[in-house]
Each structure stands twice: as C-alpha cells, then as structure tokens.
Amino acid sequence: MVTEEPLSELLAAVRDGGIEVEDALERLRGFPVDASVAGARIDTHRKLRTGAAEVVFCPGKTPEQVAAILRRLLDHHGRALGTRATPELARQVRERLPAAAYDPVSRLITLGWRQDRDGHGEPQTGAGVMVVTAGTSDLPVAEEAAQTLEFLGGRVDRCYDVGVAGLHRLLAVRPRLERAAVVICVAGMEGALTSVVGGLLAAPVIGVPTSVGYGAHLGGAAPLLAMLNSCAAGVAVVNIDNGFGAALMAHAIIRQVDAAGAGSVRPPDSAEAASESS
Fold first, then answer.
1. By C-alpha distance, which of 256, 253, 240, 247 is closest to 274?
2. Residue 219 region by backbone torsions, left for phi larger than 0, else alpha for psi between -120 and 50, else beta
3. Which of 13, 63, 86, 123 has the most CB atoms less than 10 A away?
4. From CA 95, how far away is CA 118, in angstroms rounded?
5. How far is CA 66 from CA 72, 73, 76, 102, 173, in A?
6. Neighbours of 92 (CB within 10 A)
7. Bridge partner list, 205
8. On the CB side of 274, how many CA atoms lie within 13 Å of its CA?
C-alpha cells in the first residue's frame, strides 16, 4: 500500500514542477506492499506495474489467511479472486466472507464479482478467447481458465469435448475457432488436440496439459511433452493443469493487441488482470 509520507512528497514534487507526471507514475510502480495480514505481503501495486493484480493461491493457506487476503485485495481493487479452493475451504471462507462466491468446477472464489452460467456478468471487452477441451474430464482446468478470463473482463467462447478420438467434432466447430483471437487448448491423455488445433489456425494457441489419463500418461507428463514437441508451429505451453496461467497468458496477448490498436502497448490502468501469489 502506498504510505502517506512518500506519496505526499511525490505529489508535492509533481505540483511544484520538480518531477514530470510520467516520472512520478514510474516511481509509483515500485511502491511498497500491504503487510497488514500476518504471514503475507500483498503486492498492491502489481496491477499498476504490470496490468495484473495479485490473486490468492489457496492451497497451503488456512481459511483465515485466504479470507483476510481476499478482503484486503477487495479493499484495494474492488474485487478479488482465489484459485484452487476445495469445497471445504470455500465453505469456511464464506463463513468469514458471506459475499464470496464459489464455483466447484473451476474451484475459484470471487469477491466483488458475479458471473452467471450464461455469461452475463461483468462487461466483456476486446478480442475473444476460445477455450477448447479434448474431453469432459478436462472441464475443471478449462473452467479455471475461462472463468479467470471472464473475471478479467474478457470475452470467452467455450467449445468442449472435441478431442481427436472424434476429429469430426472439432472440424464441425472450425468456423468458431477461426473467429477467436487466442485459443486455449486443454487436453489430457496424449495431448494431441493441441497440435491439431495449432495446425488449423493462425491465432496463438496455448496448450494446457491436464493430469487426466491412464498410467503411462504419468500424471500429465505425457501430454506436456507432446505439446512441447508439437509439430505445429506457434504453440505455447503452460504447466500441467495450469488453466490460470493459460488465462493470464491469453489476457496479456489480448491486452497488448487492444493497446496496440489504441496506439499504446502500456498496461491500461483499468485492466482487471491478475497475477497469482505463492
């Protein structure tokens, strides 16, 4: 959190002409953190520096810690997001924060934001992202990506259960794929769908290997290696089950596209982006 004394000095310098507005903004990008929650140092100015506000990674934290950090993020940004919350953790967090919402599929906790199942939530802007899955078992990771993007204000289209075991299902939705500015491709088993999608489209494709599969699948290592070794050029790959990371990569691409169209590539101050805490 920006403390009063250094901020007052900075503003006085701007007022007196001792520092330019742009220089002052650059200094603000490095201001301190909010240490009001025991055991946490919340980076309240990450959004100013990068266009990406901090998000709570819930595993390993107590319900008290998750609730306290979410509350502080809500105070700073007007909304807050927590990832990978179990139903029990979410229940205990909601006891402390009754306004919090929880989606058991994506495992996301949100504050200051609502998204109904028809997609009519916060205004969605910019170019669109398509989230594709190979199978229904990949839905938790896909919804983590899709709902994170929607939380950030992005336009999301979903196209689920179009894996290569029934390739005609993917080809039937090819026109929808071609309208997307970015495609997030979520697949387990052998992960072949990402290579197929990457070979069909000009848009950036972000592969997300999942831990869905049989023994030799090695908990997601097989699709991870398959995607990393894709013969389709231009495919990027995030870690196993990392729908959140894929969403942030897609959001960064869309943000830069929109900024370039507006004549600027700097992170817009209004971006409701996120960056996960450890």
1. 247
2. left
3. 63
4. 27
5. 10, 11, 15, 13, 40
6. 17
7. 183, 235
8. 31
List the one residue out of 278, 273, 264 whose CA is nearest residue 48.
273
Distance CA 183, CA 138 (A): 15
User: What CA–CA distance (Å, rounded) separates 180 from 163?
Assistant: 18
What are residue 3's phi and psi, to 5 degrees?
Answer: -85, 160
Closest CA to 85 of 65, 106, 64, 107: 107
pLDDT value for 122: 47
Q: pLDDT tens-digit profile of 151-204? A: 988 899 999 999 888 889 988 999 999 999 999 999 998 889 999 999 999 899
| Contact present, 208 and 242 (Cβ < 8 Å) | yes
CA pair distance 114, 16, nearest whole angstrom: 44
Pairing of strands 205-209, 235-237: parallel
> Can you name the residues that pair with 108 across neighbouring β-strands?
103
pLDDT in tens, 112-135: 886 544 444 444 555 699 999 999
Q: Which of 67, 55, 40 is nearest to 247 (CA)?
A: 55
The predicted model scores a pTM of 0.80
> What is the dihedral angle through the alpha carbons of 45, 47, 51, 57, rounded to the nearest 10 degrees?
130
Residue 37 has a pLDDT of 78
Least Cα distance to 238 among 229, 250, 246 occurs for 246
Alpha-carbon distance of 212 to 258, in angstroms, equals 35
